[in-house]
Amino acid sequence: MIVSTKEAEEALEAAKLKSVSQYAEGVFMATKAATLSENGRSSYQMFLDKHILPVIGDMLLVDITPAIITKLLIDFQRKGYVHSTCVKCYNILNGLFEMAFLDDSIPTNPMLKVKRPSPRKDEPTKSEEEKTLTVEQLRHVLSSVEQEPLKWQAYINLAADSGARRGELSAAQWRDIDWDNGKITFSRNLQYTVQAGVYETSPKNGKPRTVDIGPETLSILRKLREEQASSCISQWIFTQEGTAEPIHPQSPTRYFKKFGKRIGIKDFHPHLLRHSSASIAIANGADVAAVSERLGHSDKAVTLRMYVHADEESIRRAGQTVRDALKNAK
Questions:
Q1: pLDDT tens sequence across 89-135
Q2: By three-state DSSP, how is residue 177 classified?
Q3: Distance of alpha carbon 170 from the chain centroid
Q4: Most exposed among 21, 36, 233, 256, judged by the fewest C-beta atoms under 10 Å?
Q5: In whole angstroms, what separates CA 22 from the centre of its chain?
Q6: Contact between 19 and 61 (Cβ < 8 Å)
Q7: Chain centroid to CA 219: how far?
Q8: DSSP secondary-structure letter at 171?
Q9: The pTM is what?
Q10: Nearest Cα residue to 217 out of 281, 168, 163
């Protein structure tokens, strides 16, 4: 199809009349809806509605300058949001204006002259040790949870044993357990957004995976199945109190926060058990490729980047390896 000069000029003029809100709610989010998960789409929409459109939504796309966006980001950071949240705001703005530039809605991309946010000097950062539990801390968690309701005993033991994600654990069903061989298959994921409510989707990389679980975890799961059967019959392993409905995906986060305070584990959340399970396995000689498969990562580099940390013992072993090599060479 050949577009005349007049038609092109008319299209450009029409684009000039578009506000940021019109473009974001129309073209941008319609495109993102086709490529993002429901959870991701909801997150994008929240950022637009809460942080971006109230500031620049009524302005025309063509009137947005690098200075306007830079001020938006500086003001956002001054509100105290953590660095990762500031970067997410930047990334959404970058995606929006890059799309507008590529489809000729704007003649230039203002984001080319906007710097990516840097961490605030006074912003506390977590050390690698704070992102994972030590073996002693994990033992403390598993020992302490023995005094908690059976559902949470089973949830925490299964999370630490399998390294599964919160949504995968929430979506686990009794039929997923291979009792004879001590295995469980994670083939679905429960998520929650305000717009969609609780919904089921596939695991993060789109593939089901089967992992082994220890006899202690299996024993607690058997007890939970018996306890659950006395009040209701449910296909779900973890259910809402007194019902056959699956546990709300956000319930574990709320419980972990309260439980962590009681036992002295700072910032305790479900993903910390996944992180700790992987880090402890690798630190004690597990093959990175095997850990990557167990976690459901599509790229082993992700496993290396996120879960390989040097603890005191692994640093000592590294030094001893050098000394042993020199000794054997003699």
A1: 999 999 999 999 999 999 999 999 999 998 877 665 554 445 788 88
A2: strand
A3: 15
A4: 233
A5: 29
A6: yes
A7: 29
A8: T
A9: 0.67
A10: 163
Domains of the chain (ranges; CATH) run 5-113 (1.10.150.130), 128-314 (1.10.443.10)
Tokens 């949001």, residue located = 81
Q: What are the tokens at 138?
A: 């994990």
Q: How far apart are the C-alpha atoms of 87 and 219, rounded to whole Å?
A: 44
- Distance set, CA 150 to CA 77, 221, 225 (Å): 42, 9, 10
The residues, any chain, with a CB within 8 Å of residue 248's CB and separated by 6 or more, are 170, 192, 198, 240
Tokens (6 digits) for 63 = 């009137």
Q: Do the Cβ atoms of 174 and 228 come closer than 8 Å?
A: no
Strand partners, 190: 200
Which tokens is 19 given? 């506000």
Structure tokens at 274: 């996944």
Closest by CA to 65, choosing from 28, 26, 114, is 114
| Angle subtended by helix axes 83-102 and 66-78, to nearest 10 | 160
Q: Please report where in the chains the tokens 């949504």 appear, as a residue.
A: 167
d(CA 167, CA 249): 6
User: 162-186: string of b/e by CB count within 10 Å (b at 16+)?
Assistant: bbbbbbbbbbbbeebbeeeeeebeb
Phi, psi of 197 (to 5 degrees): 75, -150
Q: Do 251 and 262 touch, CB atoms closer than 8 A?
A: no
Single-letter amino acid code for the residue at 238: F
**Beta partners for 224?**
none
| Token pair belonging to 174 | 């009794």
- Of residues 81, 93, 20, the one with CA closest to residue 53: 20
Residue environment code for 37-49, b if the CB has 16+ CB neighbours within 10 A, otherwise e: eebebbebbebbe
Q: Hey, CA dihedral for 183, 291, 258, 142, is it positive or negative?
A: positive
pLDDT mean across residues, the chain: 85
Show the tokens assigned to 299: 């790229």
pLDDT tens digits, one per residue of 258-277: 999 999 998 999 999 988 88
